[in-house]
Each structure stands twice: as C-alpha cells, then as structure tokens.
Request: fold
Amino acid sequence: MNDQDLINLLLVVSGALSVTTLIFGALWLRARERALRVMLTSNSGREAPAGEITHLVHAVDAIAVEVERISEAQRFTAQVLAEKIEPEPPLVKRSPGRVITPH
Reply:
C-alpha cells in the first residue's frame, strides 16, 4: 500500500465520520426540539409565581457577591505572593575541580 492509497483511505474514512456526525447531530437537535415542544405545551397554562422569581433573583445576587469576594481574595493573594518573591541570586559557575567519570 503506497502513500496515495493511505491518503485516499483517510479521506474516505474522515468523510464518512463527518457525515455520520452531522446526521446524529441533526437527529439529536430534532429530538431535543420535540421534547421542548412537549414540555412547553404541557406547561403553557402554568406561570411561575412571583415569589419563586424574586427568590431566584436574590439567590443569583448572593452568588454574584460571593464570586466577587472570591475574585478579590484571589487578586490580593496573588499580589502578596508577587511582593514576597525575591529575585534569586545569580547562579555562580564554579569549576568542579576534579571530576571522576565512571568506566
């Protein structure tokens, strides 16, 4: 088998895999769309109560505050570590003197 045959085989296999991937992706999207339609038609008469929405808004706000606190703490820690690190002294080349080599 020469190089040209390997290239042709690779092109055929990659093309077949691409086509099957696209087909499975399209089928998955259609199934997901059908599932969403069924869920929306069954829940179309029910609306979320205002209490649930306000509770959700407060929870998201609390999460945002905590994330901001974590990022500030991380920034502060990085700054402290950057200030603590002292530059290493330059490496001094020393001649080893006599070197024993294995035989």
Observations:
- The chain has a mean pLDDT of 83.
- The radius of gyration is 32 Å.
- The chain is about 75% helix and 0% strand.
- The CA atoms of residues 10 and 16 lie 10 Å apart.
